[in-house]
Amino acid sequence: QAKEAGRNRIQWFDPAHEREAQEHRMMLEQLEEALRLQQFVLFYQPKVNLRSGAVVGMEALIRWQHPQRGLLAPAAFLSFIEGSELENRFGQFVLQTGIAQAADWLSQGIRLQVGINISASHLLQEDFAGQLTGLLQQWPALTPDQIELEILESTAIQDLAAARQALLRCQALGVRFALDDFGTGYSSLTYLRQLPVHCLKIDQSFVRDMLEDPDDHNIVSGVVQLAQVFDREVIAEGVESMAHASALLALGCELAQGYGVAKPMPAAQVAGWITQWQARQDWRQLVG
Ligand code: C2E
Ligand code: MG
Ligand code: MG
Ligand code: MG
């Protein structure tokens, strides 16, 4: 309590803190307006199977089409949303838009899994499974396993029991889960066993340096084996080059996502990209 009072006093008397707090409030107002004016858009980054060449899915990644500052990546604004009263509304927008996009592609004859990033507070909301049910009913042509919810490994273990319950409720609906940024959250094997997730996403920091850094190479290798032991899928993030792809294949990791395959793109470019990807021979040659 004394600490609390101390913090308030500092905020009150320190002009730098006061300015910061004001900027924070302004940013939240802008973000609220951005939601209202539909300035948020989802970009999509392909997930491919390096061995077969198949396009398995697309991860939805949020962008803010800012009227003055141009297209902004989540690093510029997500931290303001998290923990604010906007968080759940924002999360609902992402969930709804991602699912509608999967249904739209399906209606064009393109069956894709869509990966949607979910924040902890959104997942743990009482009504989360209810929201999901409503959206799946709205698009009956979709099969629930086309939706893969990505949650941060660190988030999942923060409140393991609650996360597990939420995951089980959603899993009953048939949606899939992936543990994002896997390897950065210090989770133990016991945790992993308790979480009903289908896929581990190896954090890009390990993948990026795996060719030069033996420790990172071993971590990637370890996560791939872990996934095999626990019968989970595994995908590498941050696959930037052919050399990464062949190193991953050598370790038994077939699924990949990264700039070497494609950067995130607007939804309207996805169909064209798939056609191009299927015509590309260099990745095929890699796997022989
Ligand atoms: P993430 O879910 O781990 O997404 C992967 C991030 O790595 C994306 O950054 C992607 O553009 C970037 N990336 C992919 N391949 C490569 C590569 O080969 N090299 C490099 N250097 N980077 C690569 P982005 O779009 O800036 O997103 C950052 C994070 O923001 C995401 O990390 C995710 O945690 C969060 N995020 C993005 N969209 C949403 C959303 O709609 N909702 C929530 N709650 N979080 C989101
Ligand atoms: Mg993700
Ligand atoms: Mg990640
Ligand atoms: Mg990340």
From TrEMBL:
It is found in: Membrane. It comes from the Bacteria. Residues 24-278 form the EAL domain. Signal peptide: none annotated. This is EAL domain-containing protein. It comes from Rheinheimera tilapiae. The chain holds residues 714 to 1001 of 1001 of the full protein.
